[in-house]
Write a structure and sequence with these properties.
heterodimer; A: 128 residues; alpha/beta; Rossmann fold; five-stranded parallel beta sheet; 5 helices; 48% helix; globular; B: 627 residues; alpha+beta; Beta-Lactamase; Heat Shock Protein 90; five-stranded antiparallel beta sheet; 17 helices; 55% helix; 19% strand; disordered N terminus
């Protein structure tokens, strides 16, 4: 097995605990995790790190998650964009999100094992 | 009509009154005067009659006395008698005594006053001769030729009168000088007899002849005369003896209060007075009878006039009464059955005509009014109904609005709370996962840590469930109805439901198996809530009965019954209110969700519960009309 590059993961959420807990769990699963507390820093980190996966909250202090989603999708066609939400999204919202480039929605609290498997699945599909 | 005559006969009474006044007042006046006049004339006549009686009797008395005077004068004038031959004179005297029974005594007195001849009914054959030279009758007769006077009671009993005439000798030297006097005593009893014949004694009626000195000469009751001191009453005497007229009469009031009608007349040349009296009642009897007669006639006339007036008044006022009655009925709105109105050919007839015209017009107008009133009432009711309906709609809309606003507020809050709680829940969840993963094999060694991690995970699930429930309830989600057949859908739902082992499930499905149009997610949640509630109230053992059926109104029914403790009546009303719960743990949204979902499907939820027996919920849903 050659030294495989770990998949890079960027988590954008204003809740530091959530960011850290999520990051550390996913690091156990073999991800290189980066974090950002708001949209601005998130974009900065994404430009610098070039993550394979971005997990972002829909509501951020300085911007809408959909806004970043759109922004990031413009920069990279392959980056996997996963939207986190604490509330129910209407079908309309979900549709809009998908059109802006979102790949997946997860509702807090989420099953981490399931999330990890889903991310790996999406990553492997991208490589193909 | 009799009733009305009694009730409303004022006009008749007025007419009656004026009729009587007009006809009776003049008649009464005339009658009164007639009576007065007739009374006065009758009285006058009665008095005159009485006077004439007195005058007549006075004449009789005069003639009576004159007769005797004439007898004496004639006798004394005879040639034989004047010769003063006693024998001849005796013969004459005897004849007089025989013919005139009233003559009691006759004497011849010579010119020197000596009695020369004396004869009488009660004398002996040779009576004593008396001297009359100083007697008044002798001197008077010698001087004037005659004398009438000297009343006395002959032998103390009956009144007698002394009459003397001079005896004149035509052959003597001086023929005018009497040669003697022929004197006689005449009984006046004859007068009393005549009086009693002419005035038969009755009551106070009486007639009498009195001398000016009160001497009672004759009386209609002869017994009066024989009384020793016979006299008329002083009152009467005073009146009749002091009269200046030689005749007259009038009413005399007696001390005892009674009244007499008296009349008197002087006897010519004698100074005597004839007095006739009778009680006023007797005297005026004719007058009284006449008055009675007139009064009787008057009464008859009054009666006649009264009856006539009554009839006329009734005749005049009858049509007016009928009109009035008709007007009364008209006033009460009885247009039918009006009394028959006579059309007389006068003003009343015209009034009746006008009345009929008026009543026709009134009937028409009243009909219109009643119709209009009915219409108005109808409109009013319609309006009221519409207002009520609109008010109900408004109220319902308002209630709905309030409910919606409340739900919206709840939703907003729930969404905020949900989001805010979900974040920490996610963090806890992540951390536990991290610990679990990190510990790995160690965890398997320490069962207690493993157990507690499980507890935390379970509680996270529980909290998330609650948040989901709240968010589900508050979410305004579009319905996505799908047509399913009720039995199949229920069967599938129940087959995946995790019934705990202590619960027995009993199913019964309608053979009709109607199709319903439902949003599968929401309706499934609603039925699951009902089943879940049933299971929760039976923690040890129990039976859940699920049934599908057709309601009488054509709805499809899903029935979920438990054999739990039942719901107390006071709680039933609040059961479907959001956040109302009887459980120690629970959001109080389970049944609220059921209600909301069912109502969103145009259905309704009913509840049937008996404490100690169990509770049955029924969901009524419209049957799908889609083919």
């Amino acid at each position: 097995m050659p030294q495989q590059k770990l998949p890079k993961l960027l988590i954008i959420d204003d809740d530091a605990h959530l960011r850290e807990s999520l990051a550390e769990v996913l690091e156990l699963d073999g991800f290189e995790c980066h974090q950002a507390g708001d949209a601005h820093k998130g974009i900065e980190a994404a430009v610098k790190v070039l993550p394979d996966v971005v997990i972002m909250d829909i509501q951020l202090p300085d911007s809408s998650g959909f806004q970043i989603c759109q922004d990031l999708r413009k920069r990279s066609k392959t980056t996997i964009l996963i939207m986190m939400t604490g509330r129910f999204l209407s079908a309309e919202e979900k549709k809009q999100g998908f059109e802006l480039g979102a790949d997946e929605y997860i509702t807090k609290p989420f099953d981490l094992a399931e999330l990890s498997v889903r991310i790996k699945q999406l990553l492997s599909r991208n490589r193909v | 009509m009799a009733l009305n005559a009694r009730r409303g006969g004022k006009l008749a009474y007025k007419i009656l009154f004026w009729f009587l006044l007009i006809s009776l007042a003049p008649m009464g006046l005339v009658g009164y005067h007639l009576i007065n006049i007739s009374q006065a004339s009758l009285r006058k006549e009665t008095l005159a009659m009485q006077e004439s009686l007195a005058v007549g009797f006075a004449d009789t008395v005069y003639k009576y006395v004159t007769t005797f005077k004439n007898v004496l004068t004639e006798t004394s004038g005879l040639e034989d008698f004047a010769g003063m031959n006693p024998v001849k004179q005796q013969q004459y005297l005897n004849r007089i005594m025989q013919v005139h029974l009233a003559v009691l005594e006759l004497s011849v007195v010579n010119s020197s006053g000596l009695e020369v001849l004396r004869t009488g009914r009660f004398l002996s054959s040779s009576p004593e001769m008396r001297k009359f030279g100083s007697e008044e009758f002798f001197n008077e007769t010698m001087a004037r030729g005659q004398y009438v006077g000297k009343l006395e009671r002959f032998q103390g009993l009956y009144p007698s009168l002394t009459i003397a005439v001079g005896i004149l000798d035509s052959k003597a030297a001086s023929p005018t000088k009497p040669v003697g006097v022929l004197v006689g005593k005449i009984s006046l009893n004859g007068l009393s007899s005549m009086l009693s014949m002419e005035f038969p004694p009755a009551g106070k009626s009486a007639a009498a002849v009195v001398a000016p000195d009160g001497f009672l000469i004759a009386h209609s009751n002869p017994k009066e005369v024989y009384k020793p001191d016979a006299k008329l009453s002083e009152d009467v005497l005073k009146i009749i003896t002091t009269q200046m007229n030689d005749k007259g009469g009038g009413e005399i009031a007696l001390p005892d209060g009674s009244k007499l009608l008296g009349a008197y007349s002087d006897v010519k040349d004698m100074g005597w007075v004839v007095y006739v009296q009778q009680p006023l009642e007797t005297a005026y009897q004719t007058a009284a009878e006449m008055r009675t007669q007139i009064l009787r006639v008057l009464v008859w006339v009054v009666l006649f006039v009264f009856l006539l007036s009554w009839a006329v008044a009734g005749f005049i006022s009858q049509p007016i009464r009928v009109l009035r009655e008709a007007a009364d009925r008209l006033g009460k709105g009885q247009f039918e059955d009006l009394p028959e109105i006579m059309m007389t050919n006068d003003e009343i007839g015209e009034l009746a005509q006008t009345f009929l015209t008026m009543s026709d017009s009134l009937r028409e107008k009243t009909g219109e009014l009643i119709h209009a009133k009915g219409e108005l009432e109808k409109y009013g009711k319609d309006l009221q109904r519409r207002v009520e309906a609109r008010t109900r709609e408004l109220k319902a809309a308002q209630d709905e609005l309030i409910k919606k606003e409340r739900l919206a507020a709840i939703g907003q809050m729930a969404s905020v709370v949900g989001h805010e709680i979900r974040n920490p829940l996610a963090v806890i969840n992540n951390s536990i996962y991290f610990i679990k993963t990190k510990l790995g094999p160690t965890l398997e060694a320490d069962q207690k840590i493993a157990k507690h991690i499980k507890i935390i995970e379970s509680e996270i699930q529980q909290a998330n469930g609650i948040i989901n429930e709240i968010l589900t309830y508050s979410r305004q989600r579009e319905l996505k109805p799908e047509k399913v057949y009720i039995n199949g859908w229920m069967e599938e739902l129940l087959s995946v439901y995790p019934f705990p082992p202590h619960i027995t499930l009993e199913k019964s499905f309608t053979p009709v198996n109607p199709p319903i149009e439902i949003d599968l997610v929401e309706m499934q949640q609603a039925v699951r809530n009902l089943v879940g509630n049933g299971i929760e109230v039976m923690p040890t053992a129990g039976k859940i009965k699920v049934r599908t059926a057709m309601a009488d109104d054509g709805s499809a029914v899903i029935e979920v019954a438990d054999s739990g403790p039942g719901i107390p009546p006071e709680v039933r009303d609040k059961l479907f209110t959001p956040f109302f719960t009887t459980k120690a743990r629970g959001t109080g949204l389970g049944l609220a969700v059921v209600k909301k979902v069912v109502e969103r499907h145009r259905g309704r939820v009913e509840l049937d519960s008996t404490v100690g027996v169990g509770t049955t919920f029924r969901i009524f849903l419209p049957v799908s009309q889609k083919r």
